[in-house]
What does this fold into?
Amino acid sequence: MSLKKIRNIGILAHVDAGKTTLTEQMLFNAGAIKIAGNVDKGTAISDFLDVEKERGISVKASTVSYVWKDIKINLIDTPGHVDFASEAEHSFKAFDAVVLVISAVEGVQSHTETIWSAIHKLNIPCIFFINKCDRPGSDTKQVITEIKKTLSPDIFVLQKVSGEESNSINLKSIWNSNEINDDLLEILAERDECLLEKFMEEKVTFEEADKTLISLTEKSYLYLLLMGSAKNNCGVTEILDAIVKYFPSPYVNPGNELSGVVFKTAINKQFGRMAYVRMFNGKINIRDCVKVSSLDDKQKITQLFSFSGGKLYPVNCLEAGNIACICGIKEAKIGDYIGEKARDFPDINLNTPLLTVQAIPTEEKNYATLAYALQELDREDPYLDFQWIKEERELHIKIMGWIQIEVLEKILLNRFEIAAKFENPSVIYKETPLDVGKGFVNYTMPKPCWAILKFLIEPGEVGSGIKFKSEVSVNKIHRKYQNEVEKTIPLALKQGIKGWEVTDILITLIDGEDHEIHSRPGDFIVATPMGIIEGLKSIGTSLLEPVLNFTIKAGEDLLGKVVGDIMMMRGTFENPLIGDGKFILKGILPVSTSIDYPIKLSSRSGGKAKITTHFAGYRKCSDEEGVIRKFQGISPLDRAKWILQARKAITQSQKS
It folds into this structure.
């Protein structure tokens, strides 16, 4: 299929803005489904899990396809709830353009801003769709103003709406060949020198102006804005037309090497594990053997499936620019490259897991089965970061929020037939070195082994993560052994001396020794954690706690109480903006003290106050303000047991 005949798009939104309803109406209008599904009734095609049908929210990204005006549209409907933002985050690797849905009633919300930051960072073409214009309280003028102020001023509004707040809304195009809108023409002329010259001479045709608009939209210099009511199928046809006309054909890599990326994995009851792949170059045929970045051996493709509506259908090959499901790569992980590295994707973060919980089977006999199920779910969502602490018989995962716990319990029950509960939720803290110091390890006994390492450990810049460098000659430590040290360091820092992951740290290998006869790569894997944790123990670490940026909007009479709340929660705030009997307060709050505050604020204000938050990062806190937990498993500080465990020579009784 010609690249000009394909569009790969994402539908994104804050929860309840109506993106899944919009997806259903697109499929219906394009003839891909006979009846548009209803989210509230649990009949939406793209909400395929039982828990999605029950709760009326999207939990997993869903890929569907339809044809409009001879163009194939691969559409990925992503969850809008912040607890499931990782699904949208992974899907960005497959998008060439996106539709960002915003409610005409609620306007730009906190997660809308987070999504927009990712769109802007990746420079992805975007169409804004203001939905729910029929709802009481809708105000498209206000929302457009808010979009221009909060998200981007480069908005190109294609329609006017009348009859808002009713089921008889009317949309009128203000960009068509019948009458050129001078205000819109001026916006284009300001961004295109050739058009500006013709504009000054009043010689611009609509075709020339529209061609310029296509170019500016594809380059993300302008963002189109449409509006309507997806529920009433109003404005949907206009969105379909805009997608095929103004969105770009798929990006493909230069060169001839096979390249693609895995953006989702899932289990299909009939076909087993599937990898959802966006191809950037070359093509894959059934029975081809392909290289996968995280796997050593080439993988044989057993089946390929494309999409029609919400259903899969078999195909013989997957070509550049297209999206399909691949069977045969059983160990594929999200982010894996098929063939050569597809392209560089800037890091984006739509949400960060801030809580860790322990999963416990209702019946002890299901312990191992629950561990297997969580491994499967972890493969589908790496942010779960599943930890199986076999020494303690504990199963831990990281989560975004409370609703995710409820959904996971449902998925475990419905899909794996395991009843489980999640206990002991805790905020995820981190550690960072207090000072500069050194760590040393001499691992030469009991033989055979030989790994001597000396590290310089320093605090890193805030947000720098883990940095490593070596100043040791290969004459002292062979390069292959130094590579093992570098690979082991992130694993060694999963738990520090206070039980949390260590970050914002610079580690330098400054001395050491291998042995021509006794050394082997595994010796350096065993030795590295011992040397680093010993060094951290000698210099100490400081706890880091997660914090949120917040914005509170409420009546002026609540200002004093809200300020008092913020101070009680160890938060900080800027000077409030006051006007029209209301205030806007911005600042920073610790996650640990503010988890339940949205509920408290809503209760205090009778639901009239509004708080929006998003993750701001980590900041230092005292041990009393944070949580110190015991080391999970065997600590490298317990040298004897650590070595015995590494050599698989320790018994269960010795572990305990």
Notes: The mean pLDDT is 91. The chain has five domains: 3-246, 259-339, 355-420, 431-539+632-655, 544-621. The first helix runs from residue 19 to 29.
